[in-house]
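Hey L., structure's done. Input below.
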Amino acid sequence: MTAQHMVEHLIQTLRLSNGKKNLTELFIPAEKLPRYYAFLLSDQPFPRNLVRPVSEQQSLPLLQYADIQAALIALEQELEAFRIYFAKQPAAKLLHPFFGELNYLE
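Output:
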């Protein structure tokens, strides 16, 4: 994964966390949720070159932005949207595809 791919991945994750992109179901079996959630709250680092369990695509996704500078600007915008979303709805919980419903601090 290139630096720009990572920034764009964070953009997509923030869209799940700021109310712009809503999911209605998990991408993992419900019985795995407690283990995934526990991992999220742990101090364990994410493994390098992690392949998502539901990903059939082994290659990197196409880049959505012209360059990393444009992606970083978009990332800042999504971070600001995240702050605004939770300022207006501090008790909100939004569904993450692998970790379940998460609040502002999670």
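The CA atoms of residues 37 and 99 lie 5 Å apart. The chain has a mean pLDDT of 90.

-- N.
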